[in-house]
């Protein structure tokens, strides 16, 4: 089953990491995978475009079934392999509702991080404003405080007592946030979540290699 | 919710009224995210939910009533008994999860179809962002930070995005939508497409999207939840007319 799967991915990309975590959680190790370099523009190569015309990673294929969009791939894997590996969608209504809500709030968190750290990549010099930079940082700060609040007194996971798709999808974004230099003492509940899940087998196994080898960035250290 | 013939003998599964009555939706007119949830409730035969129309213009989305359900002060704010599910796509997925065997199936079982539903659904969020970047430019960007070049670039990005969707709908026909039969992908994306035409998108330049738009206009769940003020005024805005 895993042998019929292919994942084209880039290191340190939260969306790619999500799919890797999901594959581990569903006991689908042994899938074909290829690490590509964003820096070299390999995400725009013919190989990727054949699976994902948007030229984005992750690009995921199961036999001749393509599921681009990381959350889409995660939903697909849980649905198709429900009875295998760990159950990633809880039974109870409250947990399910919370799980889905956190998943889509996670997109907001990812966007606000990108608005700060990718500002100079996305906005041409002539259009940049200090006021925008300031506003984006403030917005991220508020957002991350919200997440710290979500994890205060929580049962340990984003949707309640058990690890779910919400953690699969959002954890990589949280890890990325700390990789960018954020101060754990500013966000203690989020940091506790980050450190607790660091050792979960699916996460440990798929941890971005170069995060182990090289120091992180410092863009968010004063947030 | 009627039963036919003898007591205890029903020709179609009746939907208990109390299920929808324990649901409430705070919504704003013309908001694609709110519309998604309303379409889903119709599709899952959960009519009879409580709903309250609020005004974005009057700032009612930041009222205490909304903040109690959605601390982000955003609509839709959806509640099912004690369960709160904000974020429109989340509410739709929740409803399909809890009421899978009721009303229309919105996520198919077959792997290939299901994969496409999930992919198009998530791509729908990219479409939403790109539409919003253009349509809400003045709302999102303070006056002193606006640039013609930035808006131009957002329009080009949106145009490319819409062409992608035009391609996805090459074979659109009755019963053949974004991922085959009507699905959660259409629930998420259709309101965006309707929104785009409302804001002046050219049917001539996007004929497949236009066909998709007019085919699904007649679908009961969509007709029943069509934004009220869109019916009353024929003219929308035209920010997308040159795309």
TrEMBL record, chain A:
InterPro entries, per database record: Glutathione-S-Trfase_C-like (IPR010987), Glutathione-S-Trfase_C_sf (IPR036282), Glutathione_S-Trfase (IPR040079), Glutathione_S-Trfase_N (IPR004045), GST_C (IPR004046), Thioredoxin-like_sf (IPR036249)
GST C-terminal domain ranges (all copies): 89-223
Top-level taxon of origin: Eukaryota
Domain GST N-terminal: 3-85
Pfam family, one: GST_C
Transmembrane segments: none
PANTHER family per the UniProt record, alphabetical: GLUTATHIONE S-TRANSFERASE GSTA, GLUTATHIONE S-TRANSFERASE-RELATED
The family this protein is said to belong to: Belongs to the GST superfamily.
Protein name: Glutathione S-transferase rho
Species this chain originates from: Oryzias latipes (Japanese rice fish)
Gene this protein is translated from: LOC101167806
From TrEMBL, chain B:
Any one Gene Ontology molecular-function term assigned to this protein's record: glutathione transferase activity
Pfam families per UniProt: GST_C_3, GST_N_2
UniProt domain GST C-terminal: residue ranges: 110-239
Cellular component, GO annotation: cytoplasm
GO biological process terms held by the UniProt record: glutathione metabolic process
UniProt domain GST N-terminal: residue ranges: 21-103
PANTHER family: MALEYLACETOACETATE ISOMERASE
Name of the protein in its database record: Glutathione S-transferase rho
């Amino acid at each position: 089953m895993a042998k019929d799967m292919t994942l084209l991915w880039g290191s340190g990309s939260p969306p790619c990491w999500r799919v890797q975590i999901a594959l581990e959680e569903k006991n689908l190790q042994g899938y074909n995978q290829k690490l590509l370099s964003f820096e070299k523009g390999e995400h725009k190569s013919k190989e990727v475009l054949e699976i994902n015309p948007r030229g984005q990673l992750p690009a995921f294929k199961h036999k001749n079934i393509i599921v681009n969009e990381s959350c889409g791939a995660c939903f697909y894997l849980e649905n198709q392999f429900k009875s295998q590996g760990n159950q990633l969608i809880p039974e109870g209504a409250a947990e399910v509702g919370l799980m889905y809500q956190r998943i889509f709030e996670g997109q907001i968190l990812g966007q606000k991080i990108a608005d700060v750290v990718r500002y100079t990549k996305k906005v041409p010099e002539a259009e940049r404003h200090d006021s925008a930079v300031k506003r984006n940082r403030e917005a991220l700060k508020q957002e991350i405080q919200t997440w710290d609040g979500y994890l205060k007194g929580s049962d340990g996971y984003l949707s309640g007592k058990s690890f779910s798709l919400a953690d699969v999808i959002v954890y990589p974004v949280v890890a990325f946030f700390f990789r960018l230099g954020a101060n754990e003492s500013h966000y203690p509940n989020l940091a506790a979540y980050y450190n607790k899940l660091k050792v979960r087998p699916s996460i440990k196994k798929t941890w971005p290699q170069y995060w182990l080898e090289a120091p992180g960035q410092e863009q968010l250290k004063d947030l | 919710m009627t039963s036919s013939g003898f007591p205890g003998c029903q020709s179609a599964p009746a939907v208990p009224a109390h299920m929808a009555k324990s649901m409430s939706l705070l919504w704003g007119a013309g908001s694609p995210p709110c519309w998604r949830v309303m379409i889903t409730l119709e599709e899952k035969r959960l009519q009879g939910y409580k709903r309250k129309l609020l005004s974005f213009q009057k700032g009612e989305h930041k009222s205490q009533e909304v903040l109690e359900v959605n601390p982000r002060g955003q609509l839709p704010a959806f509640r099912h008994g004690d369960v709160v599910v904000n974020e429109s796509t989340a509410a739709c997925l929740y409803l399909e999860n809890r009421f899978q065997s009721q009303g229309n199936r919105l996520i198919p079982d077959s792997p290939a179809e299901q994969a496409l539903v999930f992919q198009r659904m998530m791509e729908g969020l990219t479409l939403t962002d790109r539409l919003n970047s253009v349509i809400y430019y003045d709302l999102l960007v303070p006056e002193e930070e606006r640039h013609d070049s930035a808006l131009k670039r957002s329009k080009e990005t949106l145009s490319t995005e819409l062409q992608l969707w035009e391609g996805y709908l090459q074979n659109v026909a009755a019963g053949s939508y974004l991922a085959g039969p009507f699905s959660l992908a259409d629930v998420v994306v259709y309101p965006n497409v309707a929104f785009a035409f409302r804001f002046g998108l050219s049917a001539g330049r996007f004929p497949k999207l236009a066909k998709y738009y007019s085919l699904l206009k007649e679908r009961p769940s969509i007709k029943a939840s069509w934004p009220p003020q869109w019916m009353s005024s024929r003219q929308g805005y035209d920010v997308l007319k040159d795309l």
